[in-house]
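Fold this complex.
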Amino acid sequence: MLKQIEGSQAVAQTVALSRPEVICAYPISPQTHIVEGLGELVKSGALAPCEFINVESEFAAMSVAIGSSAAGARTYTATASQGLLFMAEAVYNASGLGLPIVMTVANRAIGAPINIWNDHSDSMSQRDCGWIQLFAAHNQEAADLHIQAFKLAEELSMPVMVCMDGFILTHAVERVDIPAQNEVDAFLPPYEPRQVLDVNEPVSIGAMVGPEAFMEVRYLAHAKQLMALDRIPQIAAEFAERFGRTTGGLVRGYRCQDADTIVVALGSVIGTLKDTVDELRGPADDGPRIGVLGIHSFRPFPLAAVRAALEQAKRVVVLEKSFSVGLGGVVSTDVRLALSGLGLQGYTVIAGLGGRAITKASLARMLREAVADRLPPLTFLDLDERIVKRQLEREAATRRSGPIAENLLRDLGTVASKVS
Amino acid sequence: MHQPVKFYQTGTFTVGNRLLAPEQRSVQASTERSNSLNSGHRACQGCGEALGARYAVDAAMRATGNQLIAANATGCLEVFSTPYPETSWQLPWIHSLFGNAAAVGTGIAAALKVKAIKAGAEHSPVRVIAQGGDGGTTDIGFGCLSGMFERNDDVLYLCYDNEAYMNTGVQRSSATPPAARTATTMAVGAHPGAEFGQGKNLPLIAMAHEIPYVATATVADLRDLEAKVEKAMSIHGARYLHILVPCPLGWGAASHDTIRLARLARETGIFPVFEAEHGEVTAVTKIRRHVPVEEYLRPQKRFAHLFSGNGHPETIARIQADADRNIRRFKLLDEAQQEA
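Structure:
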């Protein structure tokens, strides 16, 4: 049913349609509306039988999810930012134990400085944790991905993270088609665990593994991710067949067929990029031939699909909302691996950190530079270099310079620097 | 897969006294017991934790008709029992992390509750225990444990307290007693060993949560331990059982002294044995033969510095004062004994 609905509520409703049996969560912005919505559905009995557990921390949230999933219940949780980092030890553990937990990450920056707005630093910090990581470009996809995520997780017995941009998607009200319960039931069968804590067939889960077997056990996690590489597009296709819309999958290109410049991106910025590309190409399509490649499965990283989508281009711009301090782009590293040997010109553009708006004007300016091959290999979009320069000068000159708020505010022109 | 129960001739206390009438016998006296933690594991000789865990889990298995699932914290118990691909556990068992056994227990209980409701029952016939050492309970797992208590989740948490991080080489935990030498509280300086006035009394903290049942026990009173597990399993909600399990390696004591030391911890008043319901003490095990703390401290190398050279009589006096305080607080002595 078509609804004008907040992204978080759309996710809460589709998670509910997936019939989770245990939901546990700790509140953290901007994830809160999702679990509030689910809390209400459980408390009102609309989702019965389902246990909603208010936990004391994100570490406990993932730990409860581990117990519940191991005992054979379909299990869901959601988090963001510092919360994801706080649960990190258990995040790795859940995938190591092969537990098909589904978790929404309402993507948000990581402090310090503390910042509640959107970027991808949180889920990228868990890049290597062994979870499947799917990124939603819009709220319809965010909703649909949760139904697909349960199916994928339970088929492969591995956990899946659905990443959606905090605030930009979670708090945006837009049109979303919420499927009917019978449609979801037909797509998503009840959870049949592969390995379960059952008194009739006792097993020991989580044994101590020594050097003689640890490599093999870890390699199996990789092998399962490679299986997911096949299963993700198949599930997206099955979903499209039943629900009549394509969401999810590994990658999706936009105007890439004739493009010599392709921008690679994840999440909600894909929409802004598409608009920018349309405007740059112009109504007569006589502008620069630019396309957009949206990555929807970040882990497993679809090396072959990315290579196939990009190999006929001349240059590739990876636009990403996270970065590896001391190196550059996180996603860029993976994209470069996919393009190795092709000799394409590659650019990394870091944008939107801590919720900095990514405007069409800035994107257009950046893309014109890229098309002219004038873009530096690593660009921070809309970085105010004056502030950085002054701060570095201060740090060179004074011992206790630090990013003092007063200095920054003066540089920004927010406070008067002279006293009358 | 199933390992038959073996009996060893080790004395009536440990085999559960088969001279008694069958209904009075210990769980361990029965060849029908679950043998949940079977032999062949890699615990040290004289390990108090292995003994405590076997008695506690077997008693919980009997109380539930073998309808039991265990969550285990990282630590000696996990490491010595599950060297992959082998396991000593005969019940469904999961180890996740060091600090989350209580929360994993909560998750299992939640899953079981949903399954029970789907089957038309109020409670699941299958029950949950979570277990760990003092490090995983009083320190790193404390948040998850408090959360499990506060929500009154249907889990029995068993803490096997050997008073330090034994699995990583004997470092101080918040259950390490004052003056004890560990690898991080060495017997050097003006006040050798662990500091006085630090640490946590987790049974009292558990009581402050006003959960249905809190109890302490030692491996010197195995029938008492079994009875407390049995009682705990008759109750729904959050329950906590704190079991003193001497560690020959960490305490620097003889393997054959595990039971004796556990008994001395009780008989000195250093480790009060009691039960509490909804935040109030309901029963205590009285001291039968009151002994000075020195008798308990002397056989342990972790306290050897208190007796070498000129010794530390003032430190021993402070430990004695702590024990005496426990005796007053929990009324561990009969009035007649107190006067004597």
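The interface with chain B takes residues 21-22, 24, 48-51, 53-57, 59-60, 63-73, 75, 89-90, 93, 97, 197-199, 201-210, 213 of chain A (CB under 8 Å).
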